[in-house]
Amino acid sequence: MHDHSSWNSVEHHVPTNSCVHAGPAGAGVATVVGMLVALALPLQVAWAAAPVPAPARTTARPGTLTGKQNRLVDDLLASYRPYACCSDSLAACLKQDPVCPLAARLERAIRRMVAAGLDKTAIETALAQRQATMKVERPRATIVLDDRFRAGNANALVTLAIYACPRQEACAKLVPDLHREVTDGRLKDKAVVGYRPFFAPGNAEALECGRGLYAAAYQGKFWPYLLHLCTERENLQRPTLRDWVGQHGLDRCIFDHTCEQPGTAAWLEASRKEGLANGVTTAPAAFVNGRRVQGMLDLDTLVDLAEEEFERLAETPAKESATIKWPGHEPSRK
Fold first, then answer.
1. Which of 224, 243, 259, 278 gets the most CB atoms within 10 Å of its CB?
2. Helices 204-218 and 222-231: crossing angle, nearest 10°?
3. What does the domain layout of the chain look like in residue ranges?
4. pLDDT at position 239
5. Given the DSSP bridges, would you call strands 191-197 and 158-164 parallel, antiparallel or unpaired?
6. Comparing C-alpha atoms, which of 186, 159, 190, 157 is closest to residue 316?
7. pTM of the entire structure?
8. Which residues pair with 20 in a beta bridge?
9. pLDDT single digits (tens) 71-97
10. CATH class of 1-15+45-53+140-326
11. 167: left (phi > 0), else alpha (psi -120 to 50), else beta?
């Protein structure tokens, strides 16, 4: 099996600090807490051990299409040629026995976009962007993944790296839905999500939000805390960010101390600069096994791309392992 991404659980060796908690009888109990200091993460480590400001909405499920919509579907099926598995028109590919999986998947995608109200030009553009995204020979981005920010099965064939900020409306909607898909939905055991914080520079509130995310991850509670923040997108100020820690089993003293460490800000800045190096300018932005998702970044499109990648790799894992070399990556999973 080809190793698409192993994960890196970064250990930080730091001096100790003392946090004092009031005991039941008011006595002071000193707890020695090891905290992180400034660090600079190497941005050339690719998948080490361990989208568009207003994405188009194409989550409408294809139900009963109107006559006009069905004619549009037929027109697109007759004119579009899949980028793999079949060299004929999509309409002709669908008549083959057996029908190749990609042809059936593309037909469903077209029907979904038609049902969502997209016109022919928009759908043709989306199909071209999908082809550009899934081009096998396309260069992969260099991304550092940290196991503390992972959701889903680490051994999944597909890695979805997502640069995001819970302060952004699109991120606050997409990220929880994607988390649900990889943990208990359509992508369970097929794909794993690696979250990369991406915040606008010079924004004090954004930086405070990022500090909170890192502090939660430091205590192993990143996803519960992030999912909470996504439900409180309009309320992400310093007092509330820190008042919520108790709801998720986080130690407030450790949380506060981690937030204030210079290394926390350095880690967030490294993540942001990595995103910029990979062409990310706004959040959310997603990568499927290192390939940047072009165009629409709604949930159904992202799930569809991940399932397509899973099907492709499940059929040709040996060939993939022999021909694709990931920058700085040494396969380790079996």
1. 259
2. 150
3. 1-15+45-53+140-326
4. 61
5. parallel
6. 157
7. 0.79
8. 30
9. 999 999 999 999 998 999 999 999 999
10. alpha beta
11. alpha
